[in-house]
Amino acid sequence: xxxxxxxxxxxxxxxxxxxxxxxxxxxxxxxxxxxxxxxxxxxxxxxxxxxxxxxxxxxxxxxxxxxxxxxxxxxxxxxxxxxxxxxxxxxxxxxxxxxxxxxxxxxxxxxxxxxxxxxxxxxxxxxxxxxxxxxxxxxxxxxxxxxxxxxxxxxxxxxxxxxxxxxxxxxxxxxxxxxxxxxxxxxxxxxxxxxxxxxxxxxxxxxxxxxxxxxxxxxxxxxxxxxxxxxxxxxxxxxxxxxxxxxxxxxxxxxxxxxxxxxxxxxxxxxxxxxxxxxxxxxxxxxxxxxxxxxxxxxxxxxxxxxxxxxxxxxxxxxxxxxxx
Amino acid sequence: xxxxxxxxxxxxxxxxxxxxxxxxxxxxxxxxxxxxxxxxxxxxxxxxxxxxxxxxxxxxxxxxxxxxxxxxxxxxxxxxxxxxxxxxxxxxxxxxxxxxxxxxxxxxxxxxxxxxxxxxxxxxxxxxxxxxxxxxxxxxxxxxxxxxxxxxxxxxxxxxxxxxxxxxxxxxxxxxxxxxxxxxxxxxxxxxxxxxxxxxxxxxxxxxxxxxxxxxxxxxxxxxxxxxxxxxxxxxxxxxxxxxxxxxxxxxxxxxxxxxxxxxxxxxxxxxxxxxxxxxxxxxxxxxxxxxxxxxxxxxxxxxxxxxxxxxxxxxxxxxxxxxxxx
Lengths: 325, 327
Known about the structure:
The structure holds two protein chains of two kinds. Chain A is mainly alpha-helical. Chain A has helices at residues 19-58, 64-68, 82-113, 116-130, 134-146, 160-184, 188-196, 201-212, 214-229, 233-236, 256-264, 269-296, 299-306. The radius of gyration of chain A is 26 Å and the shape is flat. Chain B is an all-alpha fold. At the A-B interface, helix 1, helix 3, helix 4, helix 5 and helix 6 of A face helix 1, helix 2, helix 4, helix 5 and helix 6 of B.
């Protein structure tokens, strides 16, 4: 672009600006550029600071006990957060087991079967749901699963099931929207070719359309999983947290974010130390998921998928050939 | 694509009539299955609406409009007014927006106009990673790193410079303040404003820039005249989107805001937001009236977020139509 800056004009001497003015303009431009660089540095700094502090304060506490034991009684040092790590993975697993099929099949319905009016309604609902603050999901899920007599599904107590269901609720609209967008990128020619060969529609939907969009769908799914792994607020009144392994899915269960929260606001130094270590573990889990996206798929699909998180920008018009590679 | 390489039924043999009974059955089954899954989304929105509305109903009936206008929050007397939290949410979110927007827009300008090409992707990547940090981790960091620093170095300086404004008056001894919460929210909303603004700036046609450069404009003049004026609406949309995110920010805020149920004129005093009051009190609200009051707070938060997000979409669509960023 800078190549296009022309030489000083020679046509009208009155238009020529003085050297002083030009120097002032260049100076101003340089100053603003410097400010923008500074802004970018300030924006990236918190990431470096947070990550640096987690490693600095947390890495020392990562030892065998930390990953294999449950917390020591208050006042004693030592112990670990094995139960919280296990609980987090259990919650994520259960939520995914429900959230992924519901989200993906729902998206397939929207792109392959639904009438435009129905699809628009579902899309709108999913967009609204994606904007719901996670704490609101927490009170909604409490009313459904925990409050005694709140609903037919209520267990009347805090439970792992309630926590997992809440996370699934958050995942579903996210996955529906991302999967729908990548399914729309599959050229119609593929569907028509399948139909022309007399293949059953459901086979076309699953084996041709969904398979073509597989990497994109996987990206959306991974983003959704990464998003729920760090969620704390929806678990506060559903999974509640636990200082030991739970006795079953109907009981309160620990999770890394809940453990970090509980330890961070506690008055004990040893718990603070463990909170740092737990946060380091959680951050590594979340960042690994986000990083794996980079290797999984191309920029455009990540962008399409990420746009849904959590309050999204209106989607760009799908570009049909974008997926042809 | 790979699917097409699979052996398909030879065209001549695919007698539609022969396949129909089975495929129609499985086709219908699959169709209904998918329909059921898509309907879950509609069901969810009904559930959210119903849970919030039915919980909030008794509170709103009991306290009426005064629930939004009174600043009493007394679980002992069962007397509730949500004004302190509405105030807290408004002040902390707007303050966060005030801090975050210039930084985010500067970064977006850096990324589209200034940075050399090889540097852009890595910085974009870092901004995305910042967005991936869970709120509770930022809260932890803020409690132990930011909060001890602020009252020692930042608050007194602010007070001596701006102390004549009531917002910056009062004691600066504690780190658990509205201002700390605003700063934490600012960090949380930086990535979204940055990435949306960058999209908007990127979509400004290069011809626009080249024309300005051709007139002999400096880089800043090009950015200001050709790029920013073109992308104004879109950037405003990005701000509002950030505001929508700021309203619902929960964990980090709950951990640093100090959880006080009253309105303080000073930013150096503790407060509470709609989200943080739910997070800190809902678990102990065993009484029906108390719990329903918190559900009503949740309803207010839900409706506010909904409105803000709607406005943001509208703006982005308008700004996007102009810049071609979004359809």
